[in-house]
Design brief:
The complex is a heterodimer of chains A (347) and B (496). With 347 residues, chain A is mainly alpha-helical. Chain A is built from 14 helices and two strands. In chain A, strands 1-2 form a two-stranded antiparallel sheet. Chain A is globular and about 60 Å long. With 496 residues, chain B is an alpha/beta fold. Helix content of chain B is 35%, strand content 26%. Chain B contains 17 helices and 22 strands. The radius of gyration of chain B is 25 Å and the shape is globular. The chains are: A mainly alpha (347), B alpha/beta (496). Chains A and B meet through helix 9 and helix 10 of A and helix 3, helix 9 and helix 10 of B.
């Protein structure tokens, strides 16, 4: 490796901490400063509130994706589970005024639907002994198809009961430069609690460390005595629960339920988790990193809109970020991985 | 002497038609290094698995601390302090040393909560016990193979292990690391822990063992204190035949053409000023410990690395070799040291592995391989090299170490090389197969192939080579020719 490359790797390695957290935080601040120099309106509390608001739903999806990824699995059914739960609850709320007036119950119900769908994933993976990615690619299609054929394919254009007021449940409001007011949504509190609880679970419990152990070496985890089947099933149910919750957040915040929604946002979620330092091969990642990764993706998308860049470029930007995130991980690890005598064999 | 920590009585185990263990008696005393040696398939692994509860025996009893069990479970074995460390170590590469050591203990105690500070303390205690210091916050991934091994040992000790089985613990270690592992083992036994050292490296067994048990075809064929064995008696017990572990080289004709001449070859910082000539049918050895540059000379000749200075003359013509494909085109073959990682496609068939380097020359019709003709060719080479495979279609991973090595050789034989470079040709191969591979190499050299062998296996070099260049710190420090080549002389030259 050339000298500048080596120095870069050292710097990256020092900044990334246990995962990429330091690096992502630096990028986040750097980007905020840079965009602010182009457009002064950007430096405001309104921006903070807006970016947080845009992050709620992807954050909850990302946390679900993270817990499975830590064990070495890639669960791609999260968007299907999310819209399944969110849309189903919206339809039930239309039918049941009681549900429509008890918002927390609606959220709980969506979460439980998510647990059920995660359970389907868990049973299928346990029974078929197939990789999580393969099974969830299949169940993703099954969930979507079942939703559209058995539950409904029509728009719920206005949510019933008190659900309709949900988007305006703000803790505080500030006036943005354009004369509109922007609020800090009440969801920020329960989601902060969720992050703290999940983080404590992952770092302070033996089962939580077990997720990392499984992602590091599944056979070693089995031999060490981790109940790996149970943990894998539990993690898939947890991911389902979080996806269901995220789907409900999606529906409640935009104020209508479209069963064809959420397709195409998987990339945002995967990019955010990987940017946050989680290894795509499992065994590495953190809640803090994921929060930062989600904020970074939201900030970029928000900045592009603010700067008037066509929205098609958002997908390009997120794709580039995904590659950069993985590159940052591999560059930082390369120098230490080198074998003492590198040699290859002719093919 | 007090009663043994662990005693197996009359243990028998069958797998299908194979009697893996046949009424084996085996005891491990506190504070003793108990070696178990045997060739592949002798029952060593089955013995470990039964003693640690991974497999139930068909017959016999396992006695621990005065109690007798007809079968153990892994949990029960661990509770009695009986642990096995397999070659793969079963560590978590993505977690820290402290986490690796402490998690196993937490799981055993069924503690629900994990505290990093406490984990570090557990790790430190285990490391103190072993007499080593590793950074408890280092990731296992970043450790050397030897430090990983030590982490695995500490993990066992954190669960209060009294008997530790180590399955081929030195397979992936350099000689320096082996030394430090031995220090750790001695430190442990001094504290009353028993270590069962399972290996087929006789030098190591004779260096570290207090007692030696020899298995052959599932039977204990010899058992006693180390002092009652030497290399010859051990080999005899393991193989059941007297292996002639001595030089069997036919002299090379002084008129044989020089196939390879190297003059003042230099790779800055690695080796310097290396000159030699190899005749047709000659076997030239490069003896040197890790870092001596011996392996690097071979890699440079094969074009894996590019020399900074010097001349390479192949068959009388000056050549520059920039990459392996050029080396292959000049009739040079290379059998790398780590055949598992570098030489074989483990999950693919024997056939595919053998033709992998000769696909351009393989029989084809309209650009497609003619599998019938390929099969005939492969069959011929397999017969010539006496590869024991159930069929050429089985994955190479299912073959024994010796046969895998033959498959690597077979691949090069297909190319009919004039010069063959070999790096540690029998690493990880058991004693019996080793002898057969040596015989094979001799036959190939008699057919006119010139060979360069880099090895740190002194008996191997002595058995094979017409001439040996001893390398130290990148230079040729000594040269032994013909009758000068003895184990003593070579050992002396290496240590001088």
């Amino acid at each position: 490796m050339t000298l500048p490359g080596h120095l870069l790797a050292r710097a990256v390695s020092a900044a990334r901490g246990r995962t990429n957290e330091g690096l992502v935080a630096v990028t986040l601040v750097g980007l905020a400063l840079a965009v602010g120099f182009v457009d002064r309106r950007f430096w405001s509390l309104a921006t903070v509130f807006n970016v947080l608001h845009d992050s709620f739903e992807p954050l909850v999806f990302s946390l679900g994706f993270l817990v499975v990824l830590l064990t070495g699995g890639i669960d791609v059914s999260f968007d299907a589970v999310g819209i399944f739960a969110g849309y189903t609850v919206a339809r039930l709320a239309v039918a049941s005024p009681w549900l429509a007036h008890n918002v927390p119950v609606a959220f709980l119900l969506a979460t439980l639907i998510g647990v059920g769908l995660g359970g389907v994933n868990a049973v299928a993976i346990g029974a078929l002994h197939l990789p999580v990615l393969i099974v969830t690619l299949g169940t993703r299609g099954i969930f979507t198809g079942f939703l559209l054929s058995a539950i409904g394919s029509t728009y719920v254009s206005v949510l019933p009961g008190t659900l309709v007021d949900f988007p305006t449940r703000d803790l505080v409001r500030v006036h943005a430069s354009g004369g509109q007011s922007v609020g800090l949504h009440v969801l920020v509190l329960p989601l902060a609690v969720l992050c703290v609880v999940l983080s404590l679970f992952l770092t302070r419990t033996v089962t939580g460390r077990g997720l990392y152990a499984m992602g590091g070496d599944l056979e070693a985890a089995r031999r060490a005595g981790f109940p790996i089947r149970l943990i894998q099933g539990g993690v898939l149910c947890l991911a389902g629960a979080l996806s269901g919750l995220a789907g409900m957040i999606h529906v409640a915040l935009i104020g209508y339920a479209n069963p064809f929604d959420l397709v195409g946002m998987e990339l945002n979620v995967i990019a955010a988790v990987v940017l946050g330092g989680a290894s795509i091969f499992g065994g590495r990642g953190s809640v803090l990193g994921t929060v930062l990764g989600v904020l970074l993706v939201s900030l970029i998308n928000y900045s592009l809109i603010l700067l008037g860049i066509p929205s098609a470029w958002q997908r390009v930007a997120v794709g580039v970020l995904l590659v950069l995130g993985i590159l940052a991980q591999t560059v930082a690890r390369r120098p230490r991985r080198r074998a003492p005598t590198p040699l290859q064999v002719s093919p | 002497m007090s009663s043994p920590l662990l005693r197996l009585r009359g243990i028998a185990k069958r797998f299908g038609g194979v009697q893996a263990l046949d009424r084996v008696d085996f005891a491990v005393d506190a504070g003793v290094v108990q070696c178990v040696v045997g060739e592949n398939g002798s029952g060593k692994s089955t013995l470990i698995k039964i003693a640690t509860g991974a497999l139930p025996p068909d017959e016999g009893a396992i006695e621990i601390a005065g109690r007798s069990y007809s079968t153990l479970t892994p949990r029960l074995a661990i509770r009695h302090g009986i642990e096995a460390i397999y070659q793969d170590l079963a560590l978590f590469p993505n977690l820290t040393v402290a986490e690796n050591i402490a998690l196993a203990r937490y799981l055993g105690e069924e503690t629900p909560f994990f505290r990093a500070g406490e984990a570090r303390a557990i790790a430190r205690r285990a490391m103190d016990y072993v007499g080593v210091r590793l950074d408890p916050d280092a990731f296992v991934d970043d450790l050397s193979m030897a430090d990983k091994q030590i982490t695995a040992i500490c993990r066992a000790l954190a669960r209060d292990a009294r008997v530790i089985f180590m399955d081929e613990p030195t397979a992936a270690l350099t000689w320096r690391e082996v030394e430090s592992l031995f220090r750790v083992i001695r430190h442990l036994t001094a504290r009353g822990v028993a270590v069962v050292f399972v290996s087929h490296k006789l030098d190591e067994v004779l260096a570290i063992g207090d007692r030696v048990t020899v298995l052959r075809n599932g039977l204990v064929v010899a058992d006693g204190p180390r002092g009652t064995f030497d290399r010859r008696t051990l080999v005899h017990a393991m193989t059941g035949r007297a292996v002639l572990d001595q030089r069997q080289t036919r002299p090379v004709s002084p008129h044989a053409p020089v196939l390879l001449a190297v003059q003042r070859l230099t790779l800055a910082g690695v080796f310097e000023d290396i000159s030699f000539r190899v005749r047709q049918g000659e076997i030239l050895g490069f003896a040197g410990l890790l870092g001596s540059g011996a392996v690097d000379v071979l890699e440079t000749l094969f074009g894996v690395r590019r020399a900074d200075a010097g001349e390479v003359i192949i068959g009388g013509e000056r050549r520059t070799i920039r990459d392996p494909s050029e080396a292959v085109a000049r009739g040079i073959g290379y059998v790398p040291g780590d055949r598992l990682a570098q030489g074989l496609f483990l999950r693919h068939s024997v056939t595919l592995n053998i033709i992998a380097s000769t696909l351009d020359a393989a029989p084809t019709r309209w650009g497609c391989l003619r599998w019938g003709a390929v099969g005939t060719l492969v069959g011929r080479v397999l017969a010539e090299l006496r590869v024991a495979a159930p069929s050429p279609a089985v994955p190479v991973a299912y073959l024994s170490g010796g046969n895998q090595q033959r498959v690597v050789l077979a691949r090069w034989i297909m190319r009919a090389p004039r010069i063959l470079l070999l790096n540690g040709p029998t690493v990880g191969v058991d004693v019996g197969s080793k002898e057969e591979i040596h015989q094979l190499l001799r036959e190939l050299s008699e057919k006119g192939i010139a060979m360069l062998i880099a090895s740190d296996d002194i008996p191997e070099l002595v058995a094979l080579c017409h001439r040996i260049l001893v390398m130290r710190r990148g230079r040729v420090s000594d040269e032994l020719v013909g009758a000068e080549i003895t184990e003593d002389a070579l050992t002396h030259a290496l240590q001088a």
